Amino acid sequence: MVNALGKLGIWAHPSLVSDELAQEVEKLGYGAIWLGGSPDADLSDVDRLLGVTDRVVVATGIVNMWKDDAAPVAESYHRIVGRHPGRFLLGVGIGHPEATKVYQKPYDKIVEYLDQLDEAGVPVEDRALAALGPKVLKLSAERSAGAHPYLTTPEHTRQAREILGEGKLLVPEHKVVLDTDPERARSIGRPRVENPYLHLTNYVSNLKRLGWTDEDLANGGSDRLVDALVLHGTAEQIADGVRAHWDAGADQVCIQVLNEDPLPVYRAVAEALLS
């Protein structure tokens, strides 16, 4: 069974997580490193980062079901937990339908994939499911350790906790920019929100369920939307945004730093939240 994740993690593409960065965030007290960008089935970066750290959990956020079959992913899971027991959480999901030409109902694909992970001996408690809508959130509670929502707000976290119930893992991702100039911070955050997420059906649908309007979603996103999806300001202001997720029921929040040099941001946020 995977170790406790702690209350704060980081989310980053594997190419942005050097061995040295992983070691530093572990020292700062972050409990998990979530690897985005649809890691390949061999999960070599998970092996790499676990090999240079001592305690931090490494999770995938997420292995894309359309891209990699369950069988090789399960083989990698067993290899990794054999070497590093208790330190790997397999996050899986369907990504977005625009990325695949294979037609299959997304929900059916998720169920089929989870069935295959069951058959391959990947324990329910060692896997998490990317989930935004109510149906998949419910499935994540039934078939995995819990949910890993992406591009969400504390209001979504509150709703997700109600669906998941107590005792199920809930780890939302949230983007951050350490910059006290709102316009400059938005100039960094808006492109990362718009491209590709405001052009993808599942994310747009989720934001509309949360009450955001077509006007908010147009032209790269309104200031109000960008401010909600990209925490910015001082380290303490960012920390307040993370605490809002905790108060809404998140077990851990994994921050995705959009500043060019993320390490000072990790340090500042850790000081604000973990010291």
From TrEMBL:
InterPro entries: Bact_Lucif_Oxidored, Lucif-like_OxRdatse_MSMEG_4141, Luciferase-like_sf. This is LLM class F420-dependent oxidoreductase. It comes from Amycolatopsis dongchuanensis.
